[in-house]
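During the second year of the project, the team shifted from modelling isolated chains to modelling whole assemblies. The rationale, set out in the original proposal, was that interfaces cannot be judged from single-chain predictions alone. As a representative example for this report, we include one of the complexes processed in the last quarter. Its constituent sequences, exactly as entered into the pipeline, are reproduced here:
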Amino acid sequence: MKALRFIVITAGLILIWQVIVWLTAVPPYILPGPMAAAAAWVSNAESLVFHASVTALEIVLGLIAGTVLGASSAIAIILFRPARQWLLPVLVTSQAIPVFAIAPILVLWLGFGIPSKVAMATLIIYFPVAASFLDGLRRTEPGWLDLALTMTGKPRRFRTLIHIRIPAALPSLASGIRVAAAVAPIGAVVGEWVGAGAGLGYLMLHASGRVQIDLMFAALASLTFVALIFYFAVDWGLRRALPWQPDQFISNNSED
Amino acid sequence: MVESQIIPDPKSELPATGNGRGIAIGKTDSLGITVDSASFSYAGLTLFRNLNATFEAGQTTCLLGTSGIGKSSLLRLIAGLVRPTSGHVLGSDGEPLSGRIAYMDQRDLLMPWKSVINNVVLGARLRGTSPDFGRAHEMLRAVGLADKIHARPAQLSSGQRQRVALARTLMEDRPIVLMDEPFSALDALTRHHIQALAANLLRGRTVVLVTHDPQEALRIGDQIRILKGSPATLGDPIIAPGATPRDPIDPVINTLHHELLAALGVSNSPDNDFETGAAL
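Output from the structure prediction step:
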């Protein structure tokens, strides 16, 4: 049912695309039809797969780095009082500076290769992960903490964190990672636009310069595909990792 | 100090029937509780002013009172979860109670990500000692859940979850057990069973159990004390006849039940001469 719905939605969007091309009769160098894009995809398959794999690698590395950094910042903020005063402003500042604005600087520092794109993705992911995990860590059920205190006799911050607060906050971390998985491609592609030798963003700019508009759309479709695969893989993995987390969304639709 | 010798009985099955007299698990030194002119305010309201009270070692004391009177606050004071603004709460040996109490809440407070057995050994994990899984098994057998050790809390009924919480409380093997309305969220039948189970398993320990239900107090309390007034004071111990768990249908118990209700200001009988000021 889920797969069928996915196919219907995809087919519907492609149909709308085709209908717009027919109705407006725009020239193919403005908006090529889906058939033209598909043809471009097939004739450039090898190149597209290569560039898509570069972008996918950037997203994966960025997601890992951003999650590790964001999660450890949240834990540090909870665990150490000085960290709260020093890291919280960093957290907010990291979000106040638009990633787009520092992309050229990152490319200047880290070069045209993968590292600058990973840094972009990391920066864009860092905040949602840190903020949602921190939120979860702050809202531990007070009854659990009281219970822990009666068991230990004196406060055991570290062990309480390991055995109660972190596991209790994992569902919040998971929602942060879901958001991260959805926005990570933005970081990677923006990095590629600013300066790169490979990746789908690079390929789109390159094709645009040569007026290969059908290839641009083929690259865009590939990017969408990579981003979707990514999001659903992360979502599936998180569900498997947190089986105790009640999933209202699924249970409401269980009759499907 | 009295040494109460209690033998773990691995064959104690079907504890919920309530006829297994004298089953208690673990070995513990009796320790009473002394509340020494403790004052405590919560949200601008003075709940206790120079409150003095002693809870006898090895006895189950049920604390009764209307809601908002400070029953839970008194329990939290004893548990060390809040500090009195003045005065002390100490053991009958004059030492602080921290590390010598086990606490059980109205909610089971089981961690949903841990299996039943891992919930039972939570205390050892938090203290950084290696958990005694053999003993944890024993505790779960004692509460009749030996077949559920690997289940997740979400797979259990509310009565079963509260029995796991009881096993976790017993696992701590503390001389003092503090219980805050531990059975009030359960249905009547489950509550009846688990009361008997708790009365048997906790025998020999110093138990302070907060409840709003006079019937529960009569069923499992060696002593019943009523908390009333603002700031609250503790009434003299009321001792019902017979051993716990008592039968609520017993006419003597039933009469006491009515008297307790009257003392709590619940009765609407015209010849009620008990003070009812505590009922806010």
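The helical segments of chain B are 71-79, 116-120, 122-127, 133-142, 158-171, 188-201, 214-220, 251-263. Residues 110-173 of chain B form one domain.
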